[in-house]
Amino acid sequence: MIQWWQILLLTLYSAYQICDELTIVSSAGSPVFAGFITGLVMGDLKTGLFIGASLQLTVLGVGTFGGASRIDATSGAVLATAFSVAQGIDAELAIATIAVPVATLLTYFDILGRMTTTYFAHRVDAAIDRFDYKGIERNYLLGAIPWALSRALPVFFALAFGGAFVETVVTGLANVQWLANGLKLAGQMLPGLGFAILLRYLPVRRNLHYLALGFGLTAMLTVLYSNVQSVGNAVSAMLGTDAFAKLPKEQMVAFTNNFKSVSMIGIAIIGIFLAVQHFKNSQRTVVAAPVTESESGEIEDDEF
Questions:
Q1: pLDDT of residue 198
Q2: Is residue 293 included in any domain, yes or no?
Q3: pLDDT exceeding 90 applies to what percent of the chain?
Q4: pLDDT in the model for residue 259
Q5: In Å, how far are 43, 95, 113, 129, 135 from 125, measured between CA atoms?
Q6: If you ran DSSP here, which 8-state letter would residue 293 be given?
Q7: Which of 79, 144, 232, 255 is the most buried (most CB within 10 A)?
Q8: Exposure string over 101-125, b if 16+ CB within 10 A, otherwise e
Q9: Which long-range contacts (CB under 8 A, 24 or more apart) does 116-121 make?
Q10: Which helix (H) or strand (E) holds 110?
C-alpha cells in the first residue's frame, strides 16, 4: 500500500518536473530521473531506475517540434514505479500495463495545460501594453500553475484511488499467464523501439563508423564492468602462489575468454572507426580563391 507521505512527495515532484522541463531544463523532468526519485521515495531504487531508463529509451527518438505534444513518459514512470513496488508487480509488466497507457492518456492533459496557459499569456500581453512590469512577472509565474496541475492532479488521483484498480488488473493477469507474458515481452521491446525511431531520424548512413564506435566501446565496458569479480579473483591469485590453482575452472575460462574475445573485437571496431575517419578527412577538398598573376608572373600581396 502506498503511504500518504509517499503520495504527497510524488505529487509535488510531478508538479515540479514539468515546470523544470519548460524552464530550467535540469533533466529533473526526464523519465529516468522520475524513476530515480520514485524509487527513492518507494524504497526500491533498482526498480525505479529500471522502469525510468526503459521509458527514457522508449521516447529517445520522439521529439516535440513546435507546439506538438508527446506521451508523458515521466508521469508514466512515476506511476509504474510506485505501483510496481507497492503491488509487487514485475517491472517489465508494469511498463506495458501501467506506464505506456498512462503516458498516452496524459497527452490530453498536456494539451489541456497548453490551452489554459493562454489565459495568462493574454494577461501578459495586456500588461505589456500598460508597461506594467509587475503584472508581467506575476502572470508569467501564475502560468506555471496550470502546467503543474496538469501533471500533479492525475498522479495524485491515480496514486490515491487507483490502487484497487491496479490490484484487480494484476490479479486478472495472474489468471491469464499467456497475456501477462505477452505484455512483458512488449515491455522489453519498447526500448528497442525508441532506438529504432532515433536511428530513423539520425544520419546513420553518413556516420556509420560512429555507430560502430559506440557499439565497440559499449561491448568493452560491459565486459569490464560485468567481470569485476573475475578481476578481483585474478588479483588475489597474483598475491598467493596456489590461489589461482584453487579457483574453479569455470571462472578462469570465463575470465580469459570474455576479455580476450570481446575486447579484441572492440579494439578492432575502434581501429576501423579511426581508419574510416582518416579516409573521410583525406577526401575533403579545400576550396581556395582563384589566384591571379601579374604581367611579370609573380603573385602580388593583394592577390592572395
A1: 80
A2: no
A3: 38
A4: 47
A5: 46, 43, 19, 7, 10
A6: -
A7: 79
A8: ebbeebeebbeebeeebeebeebbe
A9: 116/146, 116/150, 117/143, 117/146, 117/147, 120/146
A10: helix 107-129
Q: Are residues 192 and 208 in the same domain?
A: no
Contacts of 250 (CB under 8 A, 6+ apart): none
Residue with cell 529516468: 32
Q: Which cell is 154 given?
A: 492525475
- Boundary of a domain, candidates 150, 167, 201: 201
Cell numbers that stand for 209 in this block = 563508423
Contact 121, 141 (CB under 8 A): no
The pLDDT score that the predictor gives to residue 60 is 82
Residue type, 219: A
What's the chain's Rg over C-alpha atoms?
A: 28
Q: What is the pTM of this model?
A: 0.70
Residue with cell 508487480: 89
What secondary structure letter does DSSP report for 27? S
45 and 131 together in one domain:
yes
Q: Write the DSSP string, 52-78.
A: HHHHHHHTTT----TT-----HHHHHH
Both 37 and 93 in one domain: the answer is yes
Domain assignment present for residue 303? The answer is no
Helix (H) or strand (E) holding 182: helix 177-201
Cβ atoms of 98 and 83 closer than 8 Å: yes
Single-letter amino acid code for the residue at 90: D
The span from the CA of 265 to the CA of 250, in Å, is 22
Question: Which residues span the domain enclosing 136?
Answer: 4-201
